[in-house]
Amino acid sequence: MAPQLAWIGLGNMGRVRHYLLPHLFYPVADNDSQGMCKNLVEKGNLSRPLIISNRTLQRAKDFQSTLPFNKSTIAKTITDAVSDSDIIFTCLGDDAAIKETVSTISEIPNIKGKLFVDCSTVHPDTTNEIAESFAAHAAEFVACPVFGAPAIADAGQLVCVLAGPKESVEKVLPYCKGVMGRANIDFSDQPHAKATLLKINGNTFILNLVETLSEGHVLAEKSGLGSDNLHKFIETMFPGPYTAYSGRMMSGDYHKREQPLFGVDLARKDAKHALDLAEASGARMRDVEVADGHLADVQKHMGSKGDIAGIYGAVRKESGLNFEN
Q1: CA–CA separation, 123 vs 199, rounded Å?
Q2: Average pLDDT, stretch 32-46?
């Protein structure tokens, strides 16, 4: 019999959202749940309606209204969602949220044999805690963080990173490449935490990209080169994410939008996880330290509405320019 699937958590990642910059690569995290959920329903070849659970019931109802008729049901509680399912996906905003959810799940009688798949961006230590909790209840677990922007999630073009026992990973693979994602990075039979370790490390590449572009654009403006001329170089030499972020900076998108594409609070969470991992490993990530300092400036200037690309505004301000261009 085909497994019953459930989805817990409808942050930006889980809901359907459409952006003007679908080619941007973001450190996803926690805000692609709806796009992932949508693609499970539409392309996952599910034999039974997907069970959806969210802390805010109205958000779940609003999201369900965007899905094909009779392809999903709403569970009022996490307990209801888990009890009626075989494979349960979770995608939550931070470590505290997933820990709280797993604690609730652990109190449900007889979760033995159920498979839990966590797509949250969390510290590897948190992943280890989750794995131990499920193992103590004889449940299966796969860590499956993803890379890609919300628009990429909507399009089913994420990169899925899977770690855990091969037998468990193989049960999740049919819902990754070709459904929620365009590619898999398969860490079968490797510790669960390897997946989130890669996710946190990988996110620093995007953080550093934004920092480099911000400093380059500010120098271009103050030295007389001009941002337009620098952008011509960027789009010729570094097409893709560099060019897209450069465009966001030049257009002022980094300070004009009502909702961030990748919020400063989540970006700082990821930076702090990376710095913690570096310190624990006897390494140092000076670029991340600098970028995190600028993210702190973005928080002061814009609060939670700040976006990771707001680093540009912070670099402008410390160089004697206005935060907004």
Answers
A1: 9
A2: 91
